[in-house]
């Protein structure tokens, strides 16, 4: 599978799209380069939420590897997103070209770094990595596969996936999530949420026995994307997704001016629900005195 990214990640093809080496190579030859920004954290989140799902071709019993290829320093928090993947048992290899930040590559990549971090001065030099990287990848897959439990079911369905995500009690800064657990209780849940128009993803990890969460400290009047992922010992089940907007902040109403004098006035208004302080700004009208 392959995704390109700038400020908006784009899936070029899923893991299930091609079944032969020649088909994959032909797809690579036809790939159009996507220029733009370098939001690596958003891209890694996209890979987890879109490309590593069973309906995108990710087999539950197979090892999960992500190879990141970048030529610049990330403009968002790549380390947080990478840590989420690594916590789920997904191995990350980081390859930098030209202006890539080597310190960031080492933060993002899995251990041991001598096998998972590569840096070259220009794109043509990537060809020199192919042989070694191929051997390392195949060896890592074999090593991990030998340790895996062979009893993992191949099909998720209701067995491993929660259902019926409900978002309620929405205010200007909070919302409440509930969902129905899968038939096989997960070890933990991972909840990811972020503004749909861009923002650093935040996450909460819950015990698998819990099936509700209160999200707080949200931004008012903002649309949020919410995802709930069940986490098992060796696999991540298919996630639930929802979209909800927080309410706008309430405003003060009925502003009145009274008790006018040559250098003072009294202001009064109806309170805004939930306000803890007010900021009052005063300036002279055009052609008036100084502020």
TrEMBL record:
CDD domains, sorted: FN3
Domain VWFA: 1-133
InterPro entries named among the record's database cross-references: ECM_Assembly_Org, FN3_dom, FN3_sf, Ig-like_fold, VWF_A, vWFA_dom_sf
Subcellular location: Secreted, Extracellular space, Extracellular matrix
Domain Fibronectin type-III: 161-250
Keyword Secreted: yes
PROSITE patterns from the UniProt entry: FN3, VWFA
Keyword terms: Extracellular matrix, Secreted
Family annotation (PANTHER family): COLLAGEN ALPHA (PTHR24020), COLLAGEN ALPHA-1(XX) CHAIN (PTHR24020:SF39)
Protein name: COKA1 protein
Organism: Himantopus himantopus
Lineage: Eukaryota, Metazoa, Chordata, Craniata, Vertebrata
Gene designation: Col20a1
């Amino acid at each position: 599978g392959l995704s390109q990214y700038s400020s908006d990640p784009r899936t070029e093809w899923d893991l299930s799209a091609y079944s032969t080496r020649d088909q994959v190579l032909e797809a690579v030859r036809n790939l159009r380069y996507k220029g733009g920004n370098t939001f690596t954290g958003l891209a890694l989140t996209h890979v987890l939420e879109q490309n590593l799902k069973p309906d995108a071709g990710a087999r539950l019993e197979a090892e999960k590897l992500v190879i990141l290829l970048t030529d610049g320093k990330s403009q968002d928090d790549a380390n947080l997103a990478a840590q989420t993947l690594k916590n789920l048992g997904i191995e990350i290899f980081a390859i930098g070209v030209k202006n890539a930040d080597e310190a960031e590559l080492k933060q993002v990549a899995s251990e041991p770094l001598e096998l998972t971090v590569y840096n070259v001065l220009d794109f043509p030099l990537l060809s020199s990595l192919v042989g070694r990287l191929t051997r390392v990848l195949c060896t890592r897959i074999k090593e991990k596969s030998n340790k895996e439990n062979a009893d993992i079911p191949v099909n998720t369905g209701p067995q491993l996936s929660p259902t019926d995500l409900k978002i309620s009690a929405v205010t200007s800064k909070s919302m409440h999530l509930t969902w129905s657990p899968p038939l096989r209780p997960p070890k933990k849940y991972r909840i990811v949420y972020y503004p749909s128009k861009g923002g650093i993803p935040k996450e909460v990890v819950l015990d698998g026995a819990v099936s509700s969460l209160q999200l707080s400290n949200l931004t008012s009047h903002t649309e949020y994307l919410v995802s709930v992922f069940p986490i098992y010992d060796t696999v991540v089940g298919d996630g639930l997704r929802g979209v909800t907007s927080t309410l706008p902040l309430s405003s003060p109403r009925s502003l009145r001016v009274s008790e006018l004098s040559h250098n003072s006035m009294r202001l009064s208004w109806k309170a805004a629900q939930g306000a803890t302080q007010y900021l009052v700004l005063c300036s002279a009208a055009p052609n008036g005195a100084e502020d």
